[in-house]
Design goal:
By secondary structure, the chain is an alpha/beta fold. 31% of the residues lie in helices and 20% in strands. The chain is globular and about 65 Å long. The N and C termini lie far apart (46 Å). The structure holds adenosine-5'-triphosphate. Adenosine-5'-triphosphate (ATP) is lined by residues 62, 65-66, 124-129, 261, 264, 266, 284, 286-292. This is ABC transporter related protein.
């Protein structure tokens, strides 16, 4: 069955899941349709980012304990009669849809959050926690239409399984119209009619839908402390051959590291050593402290000063120069892509990767330019002169990841690099990382078990100590 128009599809299938690698185009089509409807509840990364941007123009601000008494709490977002997103530098004059306080218990259950979350400041939440709070809110609204844009993006595996069950139940509610957009085919839900969107056409999914929601390979309840897995021992094949520089130079050394905010333990007695030639995947449930950990490695997090940490041979407060340190790293996170403001061509963006700065680079050599051009061509960008502002947010992410890696840096830090990336892009990225692994040390945060290039040598699993 094929549909050209979303109107026709939704009329026939009021509960529908749509998988597409052309996510933004599909989102535009659905949003255009829903903007003309009333009582719509939407969950999307864009909403999450809007809140984060409104509350803090610079993401690092989040690392600082927030004293602002006016900063909105989760309680305000979920329970205020009329909630406006407002700070002293941001005003949203549209009130958010009304919520039903009676549904709070059910909603927190859906979001798998404890009641203590209500007193947390919105800005202090991790990406996944904020997503889950927004999901809780949807369950407290009274919509006729529900739209989940990239339902599982940024969520940990166990919660993804829980959410899949909740959405399947929601889709059974009589009269409710439910639209789910999925970025990955392997995340299709059971029972809900499925379509694939490509070339501006919705085609019925030809494969078989799963019988039940996928179960996570790993259960967080089993994890009581930090766990290190030697991936080389697990796979005795080609992994041993790559990134095998056993010079033993210690790049990062963290001893009994603790990070707390008020009475929330984020990192608790973490001992972790990263040596040159190792490549680490970092996993952990939403709020486990993965971004906090990366913030420490980049020296952005102020709590590096009250911990025993060595960063590339230097100690914070004892000779570490932050800018020299950052110049040795390549860093990418989805927030960075969001906050990137430069109006440069793709080629110029990639060339900034040879310098410590984000703005236009001077004195780029002919060889560097040629390498940047070669990388862009490999990633599928034919016209390297177009502005980064003209490409889609997902393409922008890919270009900024390439920028972080091209030099190559001494250490490449990637926070959820595959979030929202289509399979073909993931493969290209992993191929690049595999090639780079002989020259740089890679540390990569992921929410997908075993979804990393074969060069990865270790996995750090992080538990979540606080219950919100
Ligand atoms: N300034 C702050 N004040 C209070 N709590 C904070 C602050 N900054 C971070 N936290 C808390 O620290 C915990 C870890 O956050 P972090 O962003 O490191 O998690 P994460 O593992 O990256 O999560 P996700 O998978 O959702 O991205 C979260 O529970 C978060 O709410």
């Amino acid at each position: 069955m094929e549909f050209k128009r979303f109107e026709a599809l939704i009329e026939m299938f009021p509960q529908v899941q749509i998988f597409s690698t052309e996510g933004e185009d599909l989102d535009r089509v659905i949003t255009h349709f829903l903007n003309q409807r009333e009582n719509v509840s939407t969950m999307s990364e864009a909403m999450q980012r809007k809140i984060q941007q409104a509350l803090a123009p610079f993401f690092q601000q989040r690392f600082i304990s927030l004293h602002d008494a006016e900063a909105p709490l989760v309680r305000n977002l979920l329970l205020d009669k009329k909630f406006f997103l407002q700070t002293d530098r941001y005003i949203d004059d549209m009130a958010w849809p009304l919520t039903d306080p009676e549904k709070l218990g059910e909603a927190l259950n859906i979001a798998d959050l404890a009641e203590g979350i209500l007193d947390r400041k919105l800005l202090s939440l991790s990406n996944g926690e904020l997503r889950r709070v927004l999901l809780a809110r949807m369950w407290m609204e009274k919509p006729e239409w529900v739209y989940f844009n990239d339902l599982f993006g940024g969520l940990d595996p166990e919660y993804r399984a829980h959410l899949a069950g909740c959405v399947a139940d929601l889709a059974k509610r009589p009269g409710l119209k439910v639209v789910v957009r999925l970025a990955r085919e392997d995340e299709l839900l059971p029972e809900i009619p499925a379509f694939v969107y490509a070339d501006k056409t919705f085609t019925q999914y030809a494969g078989e839908l799963p019988k039940a929601a996928a179960t996570p390979k790993f259960k967080k309840a089993e994890l009581k402390d930090y766990e290190i897995v030697d991936l080389r021992r697990e796979a005795k094949d080609e992994r041993r051959e790559c990134g095998n520089d056993n010079s033993g130079e210690i790049l990062f050394d963290l001893k009994h590291v603790n990070v707390r905010f008020g009475d929330t333990d984020v990192l608790k007695n973490l001992n972790w050593t990263v040596r040159k030639g190792e490549h680490w995947a970092v996993m952990g449930e939403n709020g486990a402290g993965k971004s906090t950990l990366l913030g420490m490695l980049t020296a952005d997090h102020p709590q590096i000063y009250n911990n025993d940490i060595t960063l590339l041979g230097e100690r914070p407060g004892h000779g570490l120069n932050i800018w020299d340190h950052k110049a040795k790293l390549g860093f990418f996170s989805p927030e960075m892509a969001l906050q990137y403001r430069e109006d440069l061509s793709l080629l110029d963006v990639l060339c900034t990767g040879f310098t410590p700065n984000l703005c236009r680079a001077e004195n780029i050599t002919w060889e560097e330019k040629a390498k940047a051009r070669e990388w862009l061509t490999y990633l599928g960008f034919e016209d390297t002169s177009i502005s980064i502002r003209k490409i889609s947010p997902i393409d922008k992410r890919l270009v900024l990841m390439a920028r972080a890696a091209i030099r190559p840096p001494k250490v490449l830090l990637l926070d959820e690099p595959t979030q929202g990336l289509k399979g073909e892009y993931r493969e290209k990225l992993f191929h690049l990382l595999q090639l780079l692994s002989t020259e740089t040390t890679i540390i990569m945060v992921s929410h997908y078990e075993e979804e990393w290039p074969p060069c990865m040598t270790h996995l750090l699993r992080m538990p979540k100590f606080s219950l919100n």
